[in-house]
Write a structure and sequence with these properties.
Blueprint (H helix, E strand, L loop, with lengths): L3 H5 L3 H15 L4 E6 L6 H12 L2 E4 H11 L2 H11 L6 H11 L8 E5 L5 H13 L6 E6 L2 H9 L1 E3 L6 E3 L26 H23 L4 E5 L4 H13 L1
Parallel strand pairs: 1-3, 1-4, 2-3, 4-7
Antiparallel strand pairs: 5-6
Length: about 240
């Protein structure tokens, strides 16, 4: 809990805004959501909006693993040992870390899982853990998008490294090609934002994660989102899917 000293330095308007947001959430149903979609499908744009709208906690497994290792929790110590040996962290360990995180006050109304489960085995283990808690996944949002559209989206991204400003050759080009509008410094492309890297990531996604969509489809909880639409249109589709 933040001490009163911490809060004294927070402007009243910020406290009131946060309070109103939380009050608004209280009237909304709890949600346990999984976001599935290939890189560049827009999950990162939509997830903070959903998080704020429903007062959910965002569980990104990579970040959680790093946090558990840094905090030296029992599971974090186990994960660190595995990583140091060059082994993959086991599914049980990741599910345990999710289980631990879900007990936080910020996860009271539910959670958004992003980047997990990536395989059917992980989905089964996650469901088993939730079942023990008497809950289940409410909705799986599938950010469906054609590979060709993704390639255009991703390979067109350019970044100004020191400010983080992003451009896109087609959708948001800089005034001068390859140059930041504000500073006039050169733009770079992320190592991951190339067609070759995207191709291998998409292959892994189709091979491992599409069966997860089938697994949840059989449970009737998958909502297909047309992720090629504009962010605003996708937000409207998300709201529709979550209110049903």
């Amino acid at each position: 809990m933040a001490s009163s000293v911490d809060l004294e330095n927070v402007p009243s308007v910020d406290i009131m805004t946060e309070l109103l947001r939380r009050l608004k959430c209280q009237s909304k149903p709890d949600k346990r959501l999984i976001l599935i979609g290939p890189p560049g499908s827009g999950k990162g744009t939509q997830s903070p909006l959903i998080k704020d709208d429903y007062c959910l906690c965002h569980l990104a497994t990579g970040d959680m693993l790093r946090a558990a290792v840094a905090a030296k929790t029992p599971l974090g110590i186990k994960a660190k040992e595995a990583m140091e040996k060059g082994e993959l962290v086991t599914d049980d360990l990741v599910v345990g870390i999710i289980d631990e995180a879900m007990k936080r006050p910020s996860c009271q109304k539910g959670f958004i899982l992003d980047g997990f489960p990536r395989t059917v085995v992980q989905a089964e283990k996650l469901d088993g853990m939730l079942e023990k808690q008497g809950t289940k996944v409410d909705k799986v949002l599938n950010f469906a998008i054609d590979d060709a559209i993704l390639e255009e989206r991703i390979t067109g991204r350019w970044i100004h490294p020191s400010s983080g400003r992003t451009y896109h050759t087609k959708y948001a080009p800089p005034k001068v090609l390859g140059v930041d509008d504000v500073s006039g410094e050169p733009l770079i492309q992320r190592k991951d934002d190339t067609a070759a890297v995207l191709k291998s990531r998409l292959e892994a996604f189709h091979r491992q994660t599409e069966p997860v969509i089938d697994y949840y489809s059989k449970k009737g909880v998958v909502a297909e989102l047309p992720a090629e639409k504009t962010p605003k249109e996708v937000t409207a589709e998300v709201q529709k899917a979550l209110s049903s």
